[in-house]
Amino acid sequence: MAPKKIIIDTDPGIDDILALLLAFSAEPEDVEVLLISLTFGNIEVKSCLRNVVSMFHILEREMKWRREQGRPEGFGTLRASPPIVAVGAEDPLEDQKMLADYFHGTDGLGGIHASHPHLTPKEAWEHLFDPSSDSREIKPVPEGDPAHRSFIPSRRPAHEEILRVLRENDPDTVTLVAVGPLTNLALASAADPETFLRVKEVVVMGGAINKPGNVTPAAEFNTYADAVAAARVYALTSPSPRSTLPPATSLPEYPPSLSKQLTLRTFPLDITLRHGVTQGQFRQIITPLLESGSPLAEWVSAFMAHTFRTLERLHPGHVGDAADLSLHDPVCVWYAMTAEDDGWKPSATSPEDIRIETTGQWTRGLCVVDRRNRHRIEADEESASDHGLWLSLRAGNRVWRMDGSPVEDTFGEVLLQRLFT
């Protein structure tokens, strides 16, 4: 059976890095990561690039250390097929930019580049991603660079790389996992909606349905950070995308008819908050590896120490070994890796008409659902009793909201075992 092909659109970010490491921990016959597309979000996109390049730098050191220790190298999918890395959106489509550096630190990894400079490559290879270069051809990192085997830099914008990958692979063979704001996806789908719809499915970490938000009472961070982009991507799940598009934006409307509807699976806070790793679990796995000299253990331990301190400050009841980090982004990657597992369950009401609020003073990024329990009707135009075509069988979004998981009680252990043993 062919490996699952995955694009990861991300804003690394602490749990984003854990999600990437989880993907690369797979065997090459199981998973192939074709592209890492970077967006602003937790931090500025240039800091996201530095964090990703640092990750590859550390993984090269880790695999070398494991070989010298006589241990299995791991990270087989990375060794077999280095991903392309492309830099994408610096700002949201329309909204005021908001970052999550209050949680992740200004560099996205708890200040690790200043506190542990020996773990950060001295050259971040920014020039290899410079779009002003005469050539936009994708070339491997020069052999002299320590991470030359681990990634291929692109000078194209990330949304163009997403479309290129989808064009060059058969329809319905590539899963796009989006664990940051959806700006790159909105740009790609606006530029070429039919090519974008070649994707097998889009897996989104975002939103909150029956839980409060985590940046406002109404909104989860990724959806809030670019609500217009989220609304545009969700609209592609509709039989009539124009029925749920946000008010006029700088991007064009979709064509009146498209060849298919987007399959979108959303992992809101309702499910991701049920997947965590405690400081006690982390300490148990990481301590012997730190004592043995694992570069990866040292690097991850440094930013996780910041994370657990932040959690203790924000949630006074969770201290010491009980401090619990929600693994929002790794859950989405794990789904993409194991989607055939019968333990993954959508909500009983899926597919649902979930729409993203873009203009409310206090409700930007809110996931709006119709809880009125009315009968749907055949309608193409609004009526006095149905503003917004919420009841129309021909309008509204069709989103698969994931609500059940095969690893809900054990995911922290699964993640640590995959990464470190």
From TrEMBL:
InterPro entries: Inosine/uridine_hydrolase_dom, IUNH, Ribo_hydro-like. The keyword Iron-sulfur does not apply. It holds the Pfam family IU_nuc_hydro. GO terms for molecular function: purine nucleosidase activity. Keywords: Glycosidase, Hydrolase. Residues 6-375 form the Inosine/uridine-preferring nucleoside hydrolase domain. GO terms for cellular component: cytosol. Residues 133-148 have a biased composition (Basic and acidic residues). One of its GO terms (biological process) is purine nucleoside catabolic process. Residues 133-152 are annotated as: Disordered. Belongs to the IUNH family. This is Inosine/uridine-preferring nucleoside hydrolase domain-containing protein. It comes from Aspergillus tubingensis (strain CBS 134.48).
